[in-house]
Amino acid sequence: MSSSSNNYIPRPDGDFSAWLRQYVPTVSAFFVTHGLDEGMLLELQLAAGVWDSAFAQAVAAQAAAQAATQSKDAARARVERVVRPITAFVQSYPATTNADRAAMGISPRVTQRGALPAPASRPVVIADSGQRLTHTLRLVDDGSPARRARPRGVERAEVFVALTPPATPAPADERAYRYVQSVSDGSMTLSFEASQGGMQAHYMARWVTRRGAIGAWSETSSATVAA
Question: Which has more pLDDT, 129 or 111?
Fold first, then answer.
């Protein structure tokens, strides 16, 4: 059985550094005790000092790299959370073309035979303003308002809102409404800023099928933002 004369030196850097911090002063003391030439240790002491500096820098760089990686991952996750609802809206926007999608780097729409047409019915938005600075919206289909089920082939409802001063009618121009979010379970809760208390919130919605076909706009539903 053979063995290396150097196998007493630890391989992992951390273990090696701890061993070296013990080895250098101990061997130095040994030379002093026995009256040996301490000049033999000069190169060892210089090399150990260079190692200590290099190892400390490497440990600091590794910690910085880990922190940078965590920061990068968190930043990417935030971007993805913002991108997904915007992409969903762009995908369902009637004027979006596959050329637009290609330019943005998102998935094209594939036209398939037998795809369901846009729903003939429309959503009905029911707004509950019972809580301060909060509206709870419930969406039903005007073809079956007593049921919570969406029309056949419908994946979600896109909800839009416009805010106006008190006692002001709902805007007639659809472009005055901003997209809020897509709703697939029939209800959603919308929170407002304190400065928006007392204003009128006007809602419009439309059905969107699994293939991206968009239905007609709902009638406007309005409610006061309780301050």
Answer: 129
What's the confidence (pLDDT) of residue 108? 83
My answer on whether 70 and 128 are in the same domain is no
Q: What is the pLDDT of residues 197-206, one digit of tens each?
A: 999 999 999 9
Print the domain residue range for 211.
Answer: 123-224
Look at the chain and report how many structural domains it folds into.
Answer: 2
Is the CB of residue 227 less than 8 Å from the CB of residue 205? no
- Spatial neighbors of 220 by CB under 8 A, at least 6 apart, are 170, 202, 203, 204
What ranges in the chain are assigned the alpha helix state H?
13-33, 42-92, 98-104
Q: Count how many Cα atoms sit within 13 Å of the Cα of residue 107 in the half-sphere of its side chain.
A: 10
- Residue 157's pLDDT band (cuts 50, 70, 90): very high
Residue 105 burial (C-beta neighbours within 10 Å; 0-12, 13-18, 19+): exposed
Is residue 124 within 8 A of residue 140, CB to CB? The reply is yes
78-88: per-residue pLDDT in tens? Answer: 998 889 889 98
- 132, 205: one domain: yes
**How far apart are the C-alpha atoms of 126 and 220, rounded to whole Å?**
10
